[in-house]
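TL;DR need structure tokens for one chain.
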Amino acid sequence: MPCINNVNTKGDLQMTQGKFEWNIEILNHDTVRGGFKFAVFDFDGTISLIREGWQQIMMPYFTEELMATPGGREKPVQELSDFAREFIFINTGKQTIYQCIQLADEIKKLGGSPQNPMTYKDEYSRRLLERIQHRLDGLKSGALDPRDHVVPGSFELLDGLKDRGVEMYLASGTDEEYVLMESALLGVDKYFGKHIYGAQSDYKNFSKKIVIDRLIKDNNLHGSKLLGFGDGYVEIENVKSVGGFTCGVASDEANRCGIDEWKRNRLLCSHADIIVPDYTHVNELLEYIFKEG
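>> reply
TL;DR here they are.
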């Protein structure tokens, strides 16, 4: 089903002749636009779709662990699943270990004996790798087209920002070794150069906020010159906290078209300046972002 994007000050989602017309949803008309020098991107769900479906791995796994506790056995499975989904999303954008730390905390609250959060992270990573290994193999061999594994319009957006002289940073909650590998497989690493950052084993010394604060300091940058793109709560708030302009990406990762309402609702709470489903109509998006006013 084709996606049609246009600038829309009301943010309506309408049906026209059986096709969804999704407009750029403008939430903040007062944020300064134009003159951007730097942009910070999240990776998974914002550019890369290699890990599409990670929620369908993490949520059932975390729900299993909650169900195995004394308190969990007394609760409906759906209630535990909804609860896991909520705290997983709140921590989306942070390093994966933080979701596992909260899982351990919730297990303890339910009367269980939690394992080390790293144990939960390792098991989640093992399950996720089983799901995505064929994608990694296909991209490595050339059997799969990288364009089919990015949010639609990603290359055009990155090219458009590059042409405008914007220096781009990539900051992910996924382990850095995987971000480096997967960004190279997709061919997007060239846009970011040395500015690709991911989760570290010493997790307390890495965060997207640390990357952004360092970017601001090293370049003596005013926050209004910073763009942020992300599909999660954390990266949007981090860029907004320094006065930047934020584009929330409510991407439907499975269908590569349309909007994920769950993402959109959470992005509304994060106070994103605009929300888009993807970058299909990149010219209109860039025109709006770089129009001073």
